[in-house]
Amino acid sequence: CGFDEDVTKMEDEAPEKDKDRETAKSNKDLGKVTDFFAESEVDAEKFRHAVTGILDSSSKDNAEKVKRERELAAVKINSDDVEVIMKEFDMDRASSERCLREQSGNLVDALRTLVE
Questions:
Q1: Cα separation of 66 and 25, whole Å?
Q2: Which segments of 1-107 are extended strands (E)?
Q3: Is residue 64 within 8 Å of residue 70, measured between CB atoms?
Q4: DSSP string for 23-57
Q5: What is the tens place of the pLDDT at every residue in 48-79?
Q6: Strands, E, within 11-113: which ranges?
Q7: Which pLDDT score is estimated for 47?
Q8: How many helices (H) and strands (E) does the chain have?
Q9: Torsion (CA) 93, 91, 112, 80 in degrees, nearest 10
């Protein structure tokens, strides 16, 4: 009868070993998930910081562009000078006016800039 007792004892131990393996695997998988979650949190914080930096930079750039456009709009230009640039360089009115404004309304400087 000793043989039957040994087999029964082995059968009882087999499910316990399987449970231990499953528990160990579950703990390992849980560790991976929590590591991933913690890593995701760090990445989200980095992302938030990066986006904030970009937005700040973008708003500064936009503010500078708006300021520059206002400065250019304040420059007085002669309509005859705009016509000269339009005819000589086959440019549209807006581009001709901008070129003149960028050169403080000076036709000679605008022409030099366009030739160079």
A1: 60
A2: none
A3: no
A4: HHHHHHHHHHHHHHHHHHHHHHHHHHHHHHHHHHH
A5: 777 788 877 777 888 888 898 899 899 999 99
A6: none
A7: 72
A8: 4, 0
A9: -40
